[in-house]
Amino acid sequence: MSVTRTTDPDLIGFDPARLARIDEHFGRYVDEGRLAGWQIVVTRRGEIAHSSTYGARDAEAGAPVGEDTLWRIYSMTKPVTSVAAMMLWEEGRFELTDEISRWLPEFADMRVYSKGSVLKPYTVPAVEPIRVWHLLTHTAGLTYGFMQTSVVDGLYRAAGYELMPPPGVDLAGACAVFGEFPLLFQPGTAWGYSVATDVLGRLVEVVSGQSLEAFFTDRIFRPLGMTDTRWWVEEADAERLAALYVPDPRTGRAVRHERFGAVAREKPGLHSGGAGLISSAADYHRFTQMLLRGGELDGVRLLGPRTVRFMTRNHLPGGHDLATHSVGGFAETIFDGVGFGLGFAVIDDPVPSRLPSSVGEYYWGGIASTAFWVDPAQELTGLLFTQLMPSSTWPLRSQLRQLVYAALVD
């Protein structure tokens, strides 16, 4: 499958010379050694206006990025899981206000951290049960062990749940453990980036009667023609997988992280709805086009258009932004002027975010610096793929938006 340009950019409102600045700018990251390589796709009105690759998918092997390179998309799995859940919602299988303990009893009678230490936390009863919409909006009170911002994430780490689960744990087992931890806050009162989407993936399994892997394949990947998206890379495709890098703390140059990168070549014991997928630019392009078209692509409909519009509105209490409701810590988004919908960050006001975006634009990214956004107002999508952890290392996402919108001249 190809992601080559399908039209002249000037026919859909782009200045070709200004689009060329994208490659010039991001090429410097590779030339200076800060990235090994990258792939960028920009579309408008269903046409690919700009598609480019640069640098190496494997710098040590001298292997260039190709159109078919496979990328670890990590948290860009979350929107896929959210779409899966809302497909079941459209079938009437649950309501967004339902308590998740109806299907996942380990989350009944939750308690909330109040004070104390990892060794001796003091908790109080949750006054509100965790509901389905709390999982979709990251307002359930769950957290991530790698956050390093609270006693609760310390409890996750102490149990072996930091960035990855302990060996031999499946999704059901992980959720059973998550249900034993106190919540970081009362459900629905704040926003905290968390394992909520992993729990949502388990909900999909129980409600559908399928594994998350089977549901994704049968209901999303195969219908959309996403033939490259998978949970691990087998030997036959190993050469297409990009290597994973981290910045050298002294020089900022990209250094290979083979120990963590090798995980993508192993069959996982846990299919993480929050961070498990590997994909190609062509595949994720099809996923974003489905969203932009209101849940349908090439005659295949996954969601109704009203559902997509509902998912991509700000669902935070009072319509406030993440700056008001976030408990802090790492997240794949800025906070000012940004709300959160059912699986996506949503631009409510581009001025506080200092990004030249449109109201109603929605997006997410992955910890290895991949990113996407969908702008319904401009009928535009943007995709960035590279493999540098963490995603906060360089301002790649904001710079790509800056360059894309500067090239939009109609």
UniProtKB/TrEMBL annotation:
Natural source organism: Micromonospora rosaria
Gene3D superfamilies reported in the protein's UniProt record: DD-peptidase/beta-lactamase superfamily
Keywords carried by this UniProt record: Hydrolase
Keyword Protease found: no
Matching SUPFAM superfamilies: beta-lactamase/transpeptidase-like (SSF56601)
Top-level taxon of the source organism: Bacteria
Signal sequence region: none
A Pfam family that the UniProt record links to this protein: Beta-lactamase
Record domain Beta-lactamase-related: where: 22-401
Protein name as it appears in the record: Serine hydrolase
Molecular function (Gene Ontology), one example: hydrolase activity
